Amino acid sequence: MKKILKSKKTFNVFIIVAVILIVGSILNIPFLPKYIEGPGSAPNLKNVVKVDNHNDSYKGKFMFTTVSEMQASPITYLWAKINPHYSIEDDVTDGQSMSSYENLQNIYMRTSISNAVYNAFHYAKKDVSLTYQGIYVLEVDKKSKFYGFIQPGDLITSLNGHSFKSSSQFRKYVKSKKIGDNMDITFYRGKKKMHVSKKLYGLAGSKIPGIGIVLTDNNEVKTQFPVKVNPGQVGGPSAGLMFSLEIYQQLVKKDIRNANAIAGTGTIDEYGNVGEIGGIDKKIIAARDNGARYFLAPYVKPTKEVISQEEDHMTNYQLAVKTAKKYAPKMKVIPVSSFSDALQKLKKL
């Protein structure tokens, strides 16, 4: 009789454990129509950047920082509700399909790498050239006549049969036209060559003619030495500054970081200007968790107009300082506005 009771008790315990495991598994399935963003990784750039015959054997490290993104499960949703380093988002793709979003992020990354390579070689006084190849479409205004015909990720190569040597020439040509004029655009979607002809409209309700796209240059960079930058599955433009610093360090064969662990973020253009990014508060936490002593943050002057457009009404630098003060007090945040500015700030460490 005792054996039977013991067997029933063991069976009941087994059932309870099985139910808990099943319920736990279901609650961890990411099926909610929300997304969770949080601190990502901070990879050591010694393992990401390789300049031919130029190794980084110095102490310390440069790190680029990321933000993690995942579809929400009931468990991760509740975790994000109580953890100040995580946020719940309605959408992370800006209304695009996931494939279009990932393609756009890859374009951002390729552009970021090209600009980083160019700046590093230029400032290291090594042979380098930058050749304009066309315009990548990053966004299309819903009010544009071209909306639905041109997509983010498309590569525009000519307007009305005219090719250009820079995006400034591209913009100048469009502005030389009138609202209502036809514009024939030749572009590539992947390897497929396509054409579309529509009328120009007034940008933001103004009298300035436009196509209605946010764009970035597609530039080809040729260098004196082969350079490989392998960020893995990471996309987006925000690692540009840190890529450029690691490439530069390998080129000049000097310890420009003075044996420090330095993390950071920020876009970089072909002129060396450093731009703001998203999720810098989460990147501060990623840097802290990976032992960073310093964090390089994009800096823009916090005018009233700038602040009004900023997320949480704070610039990247202001939000980074606020986050570090509360959660990473031993890590110093350094404002950076350009590649040359970053080099000067590093000399003072």
UniProtKB/TrEMBL annotation:
<feature type="active site">
    <location>
        <position position="283"/>
    </location>
</feature>
<keyword id="KW-1133">Transmembrane helix</keyword>
<keyword id="KW-0645">Protease</keyword>
<feature type="active site">
    <location>
        <position position="238"/>
    </location>
</feature>
<dbReference type="InterPro" id="IPR027065">
    <property type="entry name" value="Lon_Prtase"/>
</dbReference>
<dbReference type="InterPro" id="IPR001478">
    <property type="entry name" value="PDZ"/>
</dbReference>
<comment type="similarity">
    <text>Belongs to the peptidase S16 family.</text>
</comment>
<dbReference type="InterPro" id="IPR014721">
    <property type="entry name" value="Ribsml_uS5_D2-typ_fold_subgr"/>
</dbReference>
<dbReference type="InterPro" id="IPR008269">
    <property type="entry name" value="Lon_proteolytic"/>
</dbReference>
<dbReference type="InterPro" id="IPR020568">
    <property type="entry name" value="Ribosomal_Su5_D2-typ_SF"/>
</dbReference>
<dbReference type="GO" id="GO:0030163">
    <property type="term" value="P:protein catabolic process"/>
</dbReference>
<dbReference type="GO" id="GO:0006508">
    <property type="term" value="P:proteolysis"/>
</dbReference>
<dbReference type="GO" id="GO:0005524">
    <property type="term" value="F:ATP binding"/>
</dbReference>
<keyword id="KW-0472">Membrane</keyword>
<dbReference type="InterPro" id="IPR036034">
    <property type="entry name" value="PDZ_sf"/>
</dbReference>
<dbReference type="Pfam" id="PF13180">
    <property type="entry name" value="PDZ_2"/>
</dbReference>
<keyword id="KW-0378">Hydrolase</keyword>
<feature type="domain" description="Lon proteolytic">
    <location>
        <begin position="233"/>
        <end position="349"/>
    </location>
</feature>
<dbReference type="Pfam" id="PF05362">
    <property type="entry name" value="Lon_C"/>
</dbReference>
<feature type="transmembrane region" description="Helical">
    <location>
        <begin position="12"/>
        <end position="32"/>
    </location>
</feature>
<protein>
    <recommendedName>
        <fullName>endopeptidase La</fullName>
        <ecNumber>3.4.21.53</ecNumber>
    </recommendedName>
</protein>
<dbReference type="GO" id="GO:0004252">
    <property type="term" value="F:serine-type endopeptidase activity"/>
</dbReference>
<keyword id="KW-0812">Transmembrane</keyword>
<dbReference type="GO" id="GO:0004176">
    <property type="term" value="F:ATP-dependent peptidase activity"/>
</dbReference>
<keyword id="KW-0720">Serine protease</keyword>
